[in-house]
Sequence to fold (324 residues):
Amino acid sequence: MRRMLVLGATSEIAIATLHEFAKEEPWYMILCGRNLSELEKLKTKLESHKCTCEVKHYDTSMSAAEQLQLFNECLGQSTNIQHTKAQDNALATTQTNKVNPLATTQTTEFNALATTTTTAFDASATAATDAYNDAAKDIAMQSMQVSGHQSSQFIGLDALFCSVGYLGDQKKAEQDIRECDLIMQANFNGLLPMLTATAQFFKQQRSGSIMVVSSVAGERGRCSNYCYGSSKAAMTAFLSGMRCSLLPYNVHVMTIKPGYVATRMVAHKKLPPYITASTQRVAKDIVKGFKRRSSVVYTMWLWRYIMAVVRLIPEFIFKRLNMF
Ligand SMILES: NC(=O)c1ccc[n+]([C@@H]2O[C@H](COP(=O)([O-])OP(=O)(O)OC[C@H]3O[C@@H](n4cnc5c(N)ncnc54)[C@H](OP(=O)(O)O)[C@@H]3O)[C@@H](O)[C@H]2O)c1
Fold:
């Protein structure tokens, strides 16, 4: 059974996409998000489609160390569940004992470094970054060493799907930097620890697929949502670089760029129906992109051409337009 880690699993786009994936094959899905009761409901639905799921709390406000711990748990705990099924409890215990102390040590080391950072910010910031990178690499290495003792179906990951997003309030963000921070954190900064840990793991494994929902809003800043747009632009650029860097390691990185999609995120807006997609339509495009190992998926497809035109508009005209 292939295994997928899902961030923002309660998103309407994610729910439709996971059902579409479930139609193709019975995945093992690790559903991460903030609303545990909604995640439990989704788990029940997906399990009726022969998938196996577990639920985990995830919020982009979690520290990098907490996110690394979560990533490690996603690999380790799933291993234990699979092992129980395989009636190999002794090996499962050994593996948990290998992975958990390493994560605890790394979390302690990371926290110690973070404390130092507050007293001597500039010098320690570099050290903390190095420690974080080392910790992520060590976790990936350790996981690979553990998986080397057994068949790969018992541990590891085949795909990451991230559908976390926060539109925010542009007007508020223009006056209150905290709103701007929340938008940046939910759409970019706060996602980096999990994306980086997954990339390290897939690089070591020499396989895997990273699928992240960005947005066409990241292609050009517009007055109506430029905080959200710039966070998505950062994510799009990050994924583009990651795709180049992981290409030699057989890792697929897919940037998903929806235009308008009829979900609760934009329920308060009046959207033009002919260029607004349903979540089912978006889900089909995402699964098709996954199977084809596409780099960039526009959904609906028409947005590729709409944005090509939008990008061509000279700035002296664009700045006078109140588009979309
Ligand atoms: N709808 C559109 O027109 C459109 C267009 C382009 C791109 N997108 C992108 O598509 C993705 C899915 O959005 P959607 O339309 O399906 O909207 P949605 O249903 O509102 O989904 C947003 C998801 O992000 C989660 N989330 C928000 N802030 C978070 C945080 N700080 N930490 C962890 N999770 C957080 C939400 O969790 P909770 O359930 O706990 O709130 C929810 O699961 C987003 O990346 C969005 O930017 C949407």
Notes: The longest helix spans residues 89-119. Residues 21 and 245 are 27 Å apart (CA to CA). The first strand starts at residue 3 and ends at 7.
